[in-house]
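Box S2. Input/output pair 1.
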Amino acid sequence: MVATVLQLSDTHLRADPSDTSHQRHPDARLRSAIEAAAEAVAASGTAVDLVLLTGDLTDDASEEACRRVALLVAPLGAPVLAVPGNHDAGPEVTATFGPPRPVEVGEWRVAAAASNLAGRIDGGVDPAGLLAAIDALDDRPTVLAVHHPPAGPSSHPWFQLAGAGELLAGLEGRPHVRIVASGHLHQPFEVRRGRLAILGAPSTLYGIRHSGDGWAPDDTIPTGGRLLILQPDGAWRSELVTT
């Protein structure tokens, strides 16, 4: 069966739902992204099979904000897989959404890894441990979700992932891992490494334009979410849902 994954990222909700950020209401922006995605999926005659939340669910690491994210995505009626970002508290994300265990969707698997580092904006992973966890699973087509991308349009230190080089080298020898789905940059992008695609999701709240070491908020960068349409034979495509 064809499986549809809705990736939402960098929602930046706060404990007080009346708070604004970048002159926008995070709750309202997330709600708009969910509604747009639901309409797009309904128009295709399918449904969302998994909601994938790739970090910075909160702006203040609060449990209240985490819980509201869960309430807002609940009407989609799909399982939720969430990883923390640098603005989140990992225990609160796990308490709300459960540990990031691999999820099977259709003939695919979606696995996840936390990349947030305490007190830091940049991220890091243990490549050997992550690759060993992947090897403990079967070799069905796989999406790996992580907040910090292992490659992308930014060279600024805040937007890097320690261990990225070793991780990407290891994934080259594991061709069943087809996609790395990430957030953090607030800018949609796609980088290809052979069969592997590194995808960056838009933020639901505001966009950032990256160019090398430079970055700045930019209202012309799309906001919303990303749909991953996963075919049983391992083929896939993605669509941005913009708000």
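Box S3. Input/output pair 2.
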Amino acid sequence: MTFPLIRLDTNENPYGASPKAMIAYLRYAGKMNRYPDYEEYKSFLSSRIGLESENILPVPGSDRGLQILLQYLAKRYERVVIPSPSFLMYTKFSRLCFRNVEHIACWLGRDWDGVLSRSGTDAVLLLGSPNNPTGEVIKEGLVKRLLNEFGIVVVDEAYYEYYGVSMIPLLRDFENIVVVRTFSKAYGLAGLRSGYLVGSRRLIKEVNEYTGPFDIPAPAVEASKAALQDEDWLKTVVEKTIANRTLLLRDLKSMDGVYAYDSKANYVLIRVNDAKSVFEKLLSNRIIVRLVTPEWGGTEESFLRVTVGALREVNLFTCALRNALRN
């Protein structure tokens, strides 16, 4: 008997999208000959986050949004500073656009002195909060200090919904902050590639020159709007995820040879001896997690990053991990 594959490597929402988002997507089927109305969409987004529509740029997923943003910033700044370990796409996109990409060991409970030592008005600072893969967050007071030290600060809030604290309000006092959001995670729209950037009017207007006229498909726009309106579904997803994360952390912290880092996102980073071997043993049991290697920066050892799945998936993972460690 072959057991179904359990995907705990891409930080997806295991409960799916809001039924209202699905209906909105299907309803647009009869209008697929029409392009999306981005102006109406931006007005809708602005009403949700308390800014003007000129502060918002819809993008096809946060990954593509980051790439577009870095292409624009490369014309104005000399280097990128990346507190590490961090999302691999930060490095990939930065190296495509900048000659100088600096990784500073920072997360995993360490201080920010090294990052501050690389500050300068010529530098772009790339942050994730919650940070992928560590699940750590950065406090507003420190972000304000960084905004005063760096040319521009980009805050990736892909996992914001699991944490609930955003840096978007800082736009009222700082013009050199850009926040990146996505519908791929808590909203369960990973397959539609929908997200948006939030920044100053001037920056958003200029970054818009690097985008196509209709990068986000109209059905994705409609599904994104419906997902935002279904607050009850989002609340259910977040509450279930946090409950399962609590159980997962409790079980992990009870295991010998495992160190689990507290997380504010829908994944948990764990340290085990010979992470690659454990990864392969889990894979042989049809459980996929993410192997975090030194390539992610900021560390010379490897870790495992585990998505917080549905309760059954969490239980199967912890059972398989115990067996992998025992063997």
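Caption for Box S3: The mean pLDDT is 95. The radius of gyration is 20 Å.
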